[in-house]
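Input (structure):
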């Protein structure tokens, strides 16, 4: 499970603090040094770690904390609050258009889990009482269209496709007419990814964005890729001004650096977490729950 090594180390550190009773400034600083090491080992961005520790130190090394009856608990509470803030504070919902259809555009590198996440999101919206339409806009990856059609069949949800020799901008535009004539209130647009960020992919995504003006652009990134995921997110956000992030493969043994750095570096919140290969494996991302899970 993601964060298991980080959680173990932090819980060790805090158990020592809790056992101490009264704390000196030196005790707190020593504990924070351990927290810092644990975060760096979890592949959290260096600058993010530095700022994070500084904030906690400012709050924790002071009379109020030292003189409280349970200073250890007090320090843990501060770490918990700051960790929650680091991941965005509170959960963030996706935008729903007041005039249907709501258009959600999924972007991301190939292999990040974009198509799977499109299916998972469709399932979730369907369960929430929406009528989603999946749109096969990845015309380059062999089998991407078929993959989406299979997901649609399994979910019993419509899939709009114009084959793989159509222009993705035309597909995106065409899906709006299709949605209105088929009573679909939400369009989930799968788009093409590449193995690496390239100019052509970005230009195409920009053209789709300009053509259909999505209500929500969700960037799908793979938690297993750590700081690479953060760099990828930064790049996509600079070009497309994304609205939120879907962090996939949180069920793997990723160290957690991406989850803890991405909001601070890009300013964009993680909205969903992918927690497995099955269509039900998508969770709304709750920074408070995630933080509590890490701190035990
Ligand atoms: P795309 O190229 O970005 O559209 O990627 P796919 O949706 O085809 O996913 C790539 C691989 O990652 C597939 O084998 C998926 O089953 C797998 N995958 C996607 N999301 C998750 C997740 O949250 N957890 C796990 N374990 N695997 C995932």
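Output (sequence):
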């Amino acid at each position: 499970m993601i964060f298991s090594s980080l959680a173990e180390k932090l819980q060790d550190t805090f158990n020592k603090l809790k056992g101490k009773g009264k704390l000196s400034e030196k005790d707190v600083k020593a504990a924070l040094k351990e927290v810092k090491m644990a975060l760096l080992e979890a592949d959290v961005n260096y600058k993010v770690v530095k700022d994070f520790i500084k904030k906690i130190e400012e709050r924790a090394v002071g009379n109020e904390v030292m003189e409280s009856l349970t200073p250890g608990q007090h320090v843990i509470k501060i770490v918990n609050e700051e960790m929650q803030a680091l991941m965005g504070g509170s959960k963030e919902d996706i935008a729903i258009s007041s005039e249907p259809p709501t258009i959600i555009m999924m972007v991301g590198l190939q292999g990040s889990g974009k198509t799977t996440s499109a299916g998972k999101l469709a399932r979730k919206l369907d369960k929430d009482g929406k009528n989603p339409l999946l749109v096969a806009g990845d015309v380059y990856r062999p089998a991407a269209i078929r993959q989406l059609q299979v997901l649609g069949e399994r979910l019993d949800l419509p899939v709009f496709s114009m084959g793989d020799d159509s222009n993705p901008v035309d597909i995106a535009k065409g899906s709006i007419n299709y949605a209105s004539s088929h009573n679909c209130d939400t369009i989930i647009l799968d788009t093409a990814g590449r193995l690496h960020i390239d100019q052509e992919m970005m230009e195409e995504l920009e053209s789709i964005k300009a053509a259909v003006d999505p209500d929500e652009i969700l960037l799908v990134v793979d938690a297993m890729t750590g700081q690479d995921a953060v760099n990828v997110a930064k790049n996509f956000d600079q070009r497309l001004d994304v609205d939120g992030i879907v962090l996939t493969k949180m069920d793997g043994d990723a160290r957690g650096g991406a989850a803890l750095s991405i909001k601070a570096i890009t300013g964009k919140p993680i909205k969903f977490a992918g927690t497995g290969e099955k269509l039900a494996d998508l969770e709304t991302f709750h920074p408070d729950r995630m933080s509590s899970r890490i701190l035990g």
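Notes: Residues 108, 110-116, 193, 248-249, 251-252, 274-277, 281 surround guanosine-5'-diphosphate (CB under 6 Å). The beta strands are 102-108, 132-137, 159-160, 186-191, 216-222, 244-248, 270-274, 282-284.
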